[in-house]
From TrEMBL, chains A, B:
Transmembrane feature ranges: none
Subunit comment: Homodimer. Part of a multisubunit complex that groups tRNA ligases for Arg (RARS1), Asp (DARS1), Gln (QARS1), Ile (IARS1), Leu (LARS1), Lys (KARS1), Met (MARS1) the bifunctional ligase for Glu and Pro (EPRS1) and the auxiliary subunits AIMP1/p43, AIMP2/p38 and EEF1E1/p18.
Main location, first listed in the record: cytoplasm
Protein name from the UniProt record: Aspartate--tRNA ligase, cytoplasmic
Amino acid sequence: MTKEEVQGATEEEQQAQSKKALKKQQKEAEKAAKKAEKQAKMASEQQSAEEDDFAKDRYGVSAMVQSQQKLGKQCFLVLRQQQFNVQALVAVGDRASKQMVKFAANITKESIVDVEAIVRKVEQKIESCSQQDVELHVERIFVISQAEPRLPLQLEDAVRPDGEGEEEGRATVNQDTRLDNRVIDLRTTTSQAVFRLQSGVCQLFRDTLTKKGFVEIQTPKIISAASEGGANVFTVSYFKTSAFLAQSPQLYKQMCICADFDKVFCVGPVFRAEDSNTHRHLTEFVGLDIEMAFNYHYHEVIDSITDTMVQIFKGLRDNFQTEIQTVNKQFPSEPFKFLEPTLRLEYTEAVAMLREAGVEMGDEDDLSTPNEKLLGRLVKEKYDTDFYVLDKYPLAVRPFYTMPDPSNPKYSNSYDMFMRGEEILSGAQRVHDAQLLTERAIHHQIDLEKIKAYIDSFRYGAPPHGGGGIGLERVCMLYLGLHNVRQTSMFPRDPKRLTP
Amino acid sequence: MTKEEVQGATEEEQQAQSKKALKKQQKEAEKAAKKAEKQAKMASEQQSAEEDDFAKDRYGVSAMVQSQQKLGKQCFLVLRQQQFNVQALVAVGDRASKQMVKFAANITKESIVDVEAIVRKVEQKIESCSQQDVELHVERIFVISQAEPRLPLQLEDAVRPDGEGEEEGRATVNQDTRLDNRVIDLRTTTSQAVFRLQSGVCQLFRDTLTKKGFVEIQTPKIISAASEGGANVFTVSYFKTSAFLAQSPQLYKQMCICADFDKVFCVGPVFRAEDSNTHRHLTEFVGLDIEMAFNYHYHEVIDSITDTMVQIFKGLRDNFQTEIQTVNKQFPSEPFKFLEPTLRLEYTEAVAMLREAGVEMGDEDDLSTPNEKLLGRLVKEKYDTDFYVLDKYPLAVRPFYTMPDPSNPKYSNSYDMFMRGEEILSGAQRVHDAQLLTERAIHHQIDLEKIKAYIDSFRYGAPPHGGGGIGLERVCMLYLGLHNVRQTSMFPRDPKRLTP
């Protein structure tokens, strides 16, 4: 447990405390007592020659403060473990001396302590703690790791809602300070909740797909050629030559489909050397990628992906309410809404809705970010959902490997998916015919020599297939109604940030 | 399904065939018949002006061969889907014409076909197929994707056991040919089994740890500084500066422990710019990484990791017998043996065993690869296990952040784990005290400026912790008794290979 402040442990701890209390802790207590005794002895002797341990001054409990300074008869501490905290009381009595109270009061914030205590119900709710109905009456307390007295940021500032900080003139912590001191910022209840939920998204994604018969694959990140002509790609020195970092696992997913894996997914980093300094761009993020063969229509792919997303949303709603509410305390947002089955709109319908709202745009123009957001609001008003699919994008705005729409050559069998008006997935039916792929590449003026291996993958039997890639950090950000993707990346990378 | 050869579908297919036969397939059949009719019409008209589909010559079924050449009354095909294959018969009768038999016989190998057929029991087992008791009597057959007639390698050669090839003078396929044509090589029953089992290893790893309360984390792969001085690290151009590819997620795992995540794991690529051209080195591989805080002794960490490995071994044994036996057909090996609890030997015991076997080595010398293998054989003889832990490595052969053994400064709280005599994991208790860490870094002559951020992570409260990293490809290779890590990497990267 981490000492949070001087003035009051989790459900788990409480259970652990009461269950183990008699057996294990007596043993521990004896051990600890012996250790403390030894430590005190060593401190007084300066050097214990009989103990050949060069590291003895660097671990174990701190020696107790022995001075006789007068102090109060009790002190309160707040002990924190992950998302939870609890008030603890050290009071002079049978089990604690004045010196012990003083020692406890002097433990630096964020130090890690082992505590043995009795859990007692309290009369009045402790509003400042997550465990409001109990407090710990401390009988033993040992410092396991002492924090330096001066912290780069205060945790209570780091969890304060922005509005509250401004109104009451209290400090909040800006994003760069947070990210520069991420080890401490990640200790906030908000960060703990965000990244536990993120772990849940990955698990729900994989479990859903595994149940659907998908196979997990591992694709290489160092690649020999940039498949789409080399823009926005990081270069790596590779022995005597150079290579690139994969912008997506797409080629490899497709090769797996051509290799008869039928349905595959992968979870891994993707790299974009794009000099975009926005709230939603990272140079390295985690891709949740899907690719599958289908029988008759690429809508089979859309249905698989949307159902996977719906399973994720349901799993989060049903199993991560603690985390969602913890985040909402600092960053309030509306609960995330979704429909079953998922709403699917065609691009032409979206353009019509936008025009009706006063936007001027051509049939084959791509959606700008503000227009995507506006469309999200219009869709929410009309259909009451925060999640939908936009299908049949204009062929001109999609990559060369996108299958054209057989009934209208201006459009394509491609789609984006949106959460709260922001894109989280881009996908399509891929061209699985080498000849058509060659023609499409020529049309896009792509050097055929550079994509020969890609095209050749489709020469030895390739089933019709499609897929898409989901940005993990965006899904978490938008599900939680946060406003910056750096909040949902543990150690974000952008054009200006490479550390920690 | 893929057509494998001319002369003879999976359990799933059979079930599907019989279940859907009446309803769905009638519909499909009608659809397909209409499609085929249309196609034939289009082929004769050359250009159907009323259909505005520029891609019409590139998808759909091939037009039937219409010539009247004489042919046999039946032909056998082998149809393959993933790990399974089945014999199919096209015979002249009510449902098939002579032309149709000829068409079927002329379908190029590895083409993808849709087949409608009756499943019939056969009198005599079909030894050459995985589905030995049935064959398919084909009523409709459509080519979905036609393979080029000349294949870069033959699948029957690619699954032939090495010995058999040599003895009978039949072709086998060498590794570079396989890897150069990986899309086809991955279609072999052996490859399908290997990578389905690999998917299982990842799933078992995560599920076991999730049950133990571990949180999955995502760590950055682009990093600003090479933590151990910059050897064997790939350099990346990063906008106007340069960066490195992470050799392991260790620093980030440790930061998460310091950030109070208690127990974390991650699965992701790790990069080693090591010019090692051996059977077990890759420049990019998948790390299964664990890090956890502990209470009293780093053996808590060892126990968590070994139990995770045991759960993986059990899961593979219980749920992946088909895959294991498929691989064994081509690459025979002894079943993998393990003990519960896992055998843990101390380094000094290992040195004693090796010396007894005639090896000359000093107490603090590291183990060479041949000595590791020899030790594996000695341990197998003595303890009958293919999996064990070697604990308490000499401090001198371990990285600077390794916690020294408190009772003997020549040794350390560190360990490796071995499968069939080869290392699959390296791990340790880490130094969690900034001062001791600084001293150890100075001892190793590491530039303190370069690791300042790392050391500072431990200044604000850091619990005792340890962990380790497992190489996914090695685990799969050694579990299956394979002899080259490239067999268990879908798209392997080594100093000489960057493609496909």
